[in-house]
Amino acid sequence: MNPEKDFSPLTPSIVRALNDKLYEKRKVAALEIEKLVREFVAQNSTAQIKHVIQILSQEFALSQHPHSRKGGLIGLAACSIALGKDSGLYLKELIEPVLTCFNDADSRLRYYACEALYNIVKVARGSVLPHFKVLFDGLSKLAADPDPNVKSGSELLDRLLKDIVTESNNFDLVSFIPLLRERIYSNNQYARQFIISWILVLESVPDINLLDYLPEILDGLFQILGDNSKEIRKMCEVALGEFLKEIKKNPSSVKFAEMANILVIHCQASDDLIQLTAMCWMREFIQLAGRVMLPYSSGILTAVLPCLSYDDRKKSIKEVANVCNQSLMKLVIPEDDEVDETKQPTTAPQIMEGDQDESLSKQEVTSGGKSFPPQSKLSFCLAFCRIQVTLNLDGIVQVLDCHLHDSTIGMMTRIAVLKWLYHLYIKTPRKMFRHTDSLFPILLKTLSDESDEVILKDLEVLAEIASSPAGQTEGQGAPDGPSLRPGQLELHIPLTSSLLLLPGTKGMECSPSTPTMNSYFYKFMINLLKRFSSERKLLELRGAFIIRQLCLLLNAENIFHSMADILLREEDLKFASTMVHTLNTILLTSSELFQLRNQLKDLKTAESRNLFCCLYRSWCHNPVTTVSLCFLTQNYKHAYDLIQKFGDLEVTVDFLIEVDKLVQLIECPIFTYLRLQLLDVKNNPYLIKALYGLLMLLPQSNAFQLLSHRLQCVPNPELLQTADGPKASLTSKKTSVTTPAIDYTELLQHFEKVQSKHLQVRHQRANRGENLDRRTVF
User: Fold this and answer.
1) Which of 142, 210, 231, 569 could cross-link with 154 by S-S, CB 3.0 to 4.6 Å?
2) Which residues, 6 or more positions from 203, have their beta carbon under 8 angstroms from its beta carbon?
3) pLDDT tens, 196-221?
4) Share of the chain above pLDDT 70, in %
5) What is the pTM of this model?
6) Are residues 232 and 250 in contact, defined by beta-carbon separation less than 8 angstroms?
7) Residue 72 pLDDT more than 60?
8) What is the pLDDT of residues 633-672, one digit of tens each?
């Protein structure tokens, strides 16, 4: 500093003292400056006051010499004290040089700058609020200062500024929010602590509505919630808790839509606390905002669904996620199925390409710009429900489809996905059937899941697809387009309808009175059998379970009718035989098919006779099952005729095993009526002959002994004569089961034809050297 320079009105002694390295001398100079400025105030000499502040700022506070800078800082503070309430007129000139010193490399100088600004702010009080933005910016830097003394000084200044803000009614929140939004992303712990403390203070001020600006700082708050410091995490938890309380009290003023995606992101956080907190917020948002959240359903499901499979270590997150999932599902209503005015109704189910590319922003419904009178939460939710909200069904289905394709997801998540699909097919069937073609392959694949519960839910969805009136289409002709590759799953219209009118099937066509479900039912049956054919392990382990459940969910007669229809054209004869055996076992043993068995037992109606004929033609793929079907329907003469044909068949170990199983079935409660009919020898001679025929087929085995003992119990007809004469009998309610409506000669010819095909195929395979795994018994 040039000693010859004129610093008037500051005296040379004041200038020397301000440049001194000793604090005490600088303090004496500050007292002299205070006295000088008071005189200028008394004289109303504004020019002189500005001149003194300018000298202290330019020549001292911003000097290159550290001691001069210290002198300038204490001098500026002295000016502010002297000015008193009039300091507000000179605040810009007083504050700017002090804030510049906040960036000084010398920690002592930063401390003095903090001390000087404290004195300036203490005097000016509310007058500093127009300069709050620059003050806050400077303080946020000092909050992260490495020097403990500087940090301690900044905390004093911080508390003073907070007191001023809470006392004032003129705080400019609008201009402050951008700075808060910028600083909230700091990674420094002390800066984060500083930011959170200010948010808590502003939230506590009744006249400051920070909730309006919550969307701008919510993401940053969740970032801070993941801080390593427990103290900061706790502070952030408190701040978020206060905001959530305010949201519950005043939902009408909350911008739910603007914060939805922020919550979606943090609901997927790896930090448990962040994820749990965000999930709790999401739960409240869904329950408070209602259908306003529907446009964000796909994102919400992306975040929520994986949490449903969490183990007990994340039990809290799992429970909250489950509530979110259930609450969101309830928001989907039948009105969401209204056909879009811009889309023409289709005549065949298909995926509406391009739907998934629609921008979510076009569907967003926000509460911004809408004013709601104070009201209860219930009335508020009802008010929101009246807002026109578009369900982003394409996005939801895409998310559900992706989760089903992900083999790593847990069982509970897969169940939740299937529940969602079922719910959507119930509430919005017409729109959902646009996606059926794309969903069907993965739904069919899910039948191979390890969990029975997943399979049950999957079957519920498939059953709804197959039975929903919305799935009915106009035509059932073959679709245009190239044929599918081998092994490719398909869902298309069959070449013929389910009514089979083949040459030589007089009296045996499928019953037209059978309920046809919808146009997807037959397709489902086709592709289910294709699945069983390509994945034999599925048929072996879960085939019976799947079919039995479908019989509960759908019409059992329809299922057997359609499967028999399809198997009639099956080219893989070995699979056809296996599948028929499976269906026959289910038919004879499952409690779910009690009504269908009773229907077939008497063949009193045209429908039951047609069903028998349809089943019979497919059952011919397996000789023993064909006989068992005749036993079930009490066609004993035809059963005897069939067994007579067995002498022309290739008798294998597998064949004898099936005969063995049939004998075991005859001893079961299913065939109680058949065993009782053995008492009526005269009216059931072909039943006894058929059973003797089975006995003659069996080698000396347990089954042979079992059936032999049973036949030994058949009474001598002469011993059954009573006083009423030879016409009395202990017969079943049906004495003649041969009905003119069925051409049994043609059925027998069909049986011979099918078995001839089977024999031809086995010989062809044997000639190719294939292992038939069907050992012939000599």
Assistant:
1) 142
2) 210, 239, 242, 243, 246
3) 999 999 998 888 899 999 999 999 99
4) 83
5) 0.79
6) no
7) yes
8) 999 999 999 999 988 888 888 889 999 999 999 999 989 9
pLDDT of residue 119: 94
d(CA 634, CA 668): 16
On the question of a cis peptide bond just before residue 699, with omega within 30 degrees of 0, the verdict is no
User: Residue ranges per domain, the chain?
Assistant: 1-170, 555-767
Tell me which of 103 and 742 has the higher pLDDT: 103
Phi and psi at residue 263, to the nearest 5°: -65, -40
Per-residue pLDDT band for 503 (boundaries 50, 70, 90) equals very low
For range 326-332, the mean pLDDT? 95
DSSP of 535-589: -HHHHHHHHHHHHHHHHHHS-HHHHHHHHHHHHTT-S-HHHHHHHHHHHHHHHHH
Of 271, 326, 336, 273, residue with least CA distance to 304:
326
389 and 292 Cβ atoms separated by less than 8 Å: yes
Q: Mean of the per-residue pLDDT values for the chain?
A: 83
State residue 398's pLDDT score: 96
468 CA to centre of own chain: 23
pLDDT value at residue 770: 59
State both tokens at 314.
Answer: 């994340």
For the beta carbon of residue 406, count every other beta carbon within 10 angstroms.
13
> Radius of gyration (Cα) for the chain, nearest Å?
44
Residue 90 parent element (H or E): none
Across the strands, what pairs with 776? 652
Question: Can you tell me the distance from the alpha carbon of 259 to that of 220, in angstroms, rounded to the nearest whole number?
Answer: 12
And the tokens for 72?
A: 């300038």
- The runs of H, that is alpha helices, within 60-188 are 66-83, 91-101, 107-124, 132-142, 148-167, 173-183
Interatomic CA distance for residues 616 and 749, integer angstroms? 12
Residue 266 and residue 395 in contact, taking contact as beta carbons nearer than 8 Å: no
Instruction: Give me the mean pLDDT over the 454-462 stretch.
Output: 96
Closest C-alpha to 77, from 136, 137, 108, 37: 37
CATH number assigned to the domain covering 1-170:
1.25.10.10
CA 306, 308, 313, 314 torsion: positive or negative?
A: positive
Phi, psi of 766 (to 5 degrees): -65, -40
Burial class (CB in 10 A: 0-12, 13-18, 19+), 571: exposed
310 three-class SS: coil
Cβ neighbours of 408 (radius 10 Å)? 7
- Residue pointed to by tokens 């003469």: 637
Calculate the alpha carbon distances from 110 to 118, 139, 160, 643, 660 in Å.
12, 11, 18, 108, 99
Between helix 411-427 and helix 393-405 the angle, nearest 10°, is 150
Residue 674 Cα distances to 432, 581, 628, 631, 666, angstroms? 49, 21, 11, 8, 8
**Contact assessment for residue 356 and residue 395, using Cβ atoms and an 8 Å cutoff:** yes
Which residues, including other chains, have CB under 8 Å from residue 424's CB and lie 6 or more apart?
A: 332, 393, 396, 397, 432
pLDDT at 381: 45
- Burial code (b: 16+ CB inside 10 Å, e: under 16) for 484-504 equals eeeeeeebebbeebbebeeee
Of 764, 759, 772, nearest in space to 621 by CA: 759
